[in-house]
Amino acid sequence: MCALPILELRGDNFTEPRRTPWGGARLAAWKNALGLTAAAPLGESWEVSFGPELPTFVRARSGQQARTLAEWVRDDITGYLGDEAKLGSSALLVKLLDTRAPLSVQIHPASDDPHLAEDESGKPECWYIAHAEPGAEILFGLSDAASPEQMQERLVAGDDLTSMLARFPAHAGDFFVVPPGTPHAIGAGVTVVEPQRVSIQRRGVTYRYWDHGRRYDTNGRLDPAGEPRTLHTAEALRVTDWHGGRASILRRTAFRAASPARGHAMELDVLSGSGGLASPIDVALLRGSGTCTLEAAPVGRSLTVVSGALRTEGIEARCAESLYLPAGRPIVIEGADLVAVLASTGA
Fold it and tell me: Which residues, 6 or more positions from 65, have their beta carbon under 8 angstroms from its beta carbon?
């Protein structure tokens, strides 16, 4: 019996700019270098998406019909998804994000939140910082001084909320686990790989506390005469974890640095999940030059390149390209100054 092929993902699954008015130029440049048509600003590329909202397509060979990743894996759902096959699809969602301006201050509910609608899901996520401009930062977790009363007062007044959050300098190689109930915002000048877990056939929910007082026209461009983005202040306050979401706790449990290893032998560094930081998403960093064998995994995995290049089973992938790896068999990766993010969810 032949081994299932690794799937090359098409890479042009972009969020429309009006939904990402904070988008930058780096992601567009990466995609254009691959021969794709990506206009800047470009905020998001959904690299791996099984859901209906913005599904990822597998790169079609000559004579093949274009098919989504979800359609492709149904040909051998157990072979591709492994233990996730019993769910009928995968909960994995992986994005590339690039920021010219800071994102809104936001938060995600837990997936078992009883207030979610039938088609909604929580959205635990992780960030691997692929690039950061000098002085870039991340807002992550509540400051120790923040209280529900202070947050409510500032939100009612429309005041700057960022002083209620902790600031972390952003550097390439930093990694964050973002649990539900944690206020957060990615700052300007940051490019991240963002693995997420979204319940099958549902859409991940984001609540916005505050959006820096910005207004936009219908195309998502800043316009003082435009309209503000929708805020969800009551919902955001309701799901805020006033204890576990403190930066003093998150600093010890949900932040680490993993600097890219140029010129070094290939290695696999586990960041979260089994053997790493506590998370419902397994994330590892493949980096360096040479050859590495990824052991067989119980579920399918994504592999997103953010620097250098890799080769595997006749496939080559460069910066801003992603692959989907079938479950249940080892895979040999050859890399040259490679930095790539490996991600999966448990069943």
Answer: none
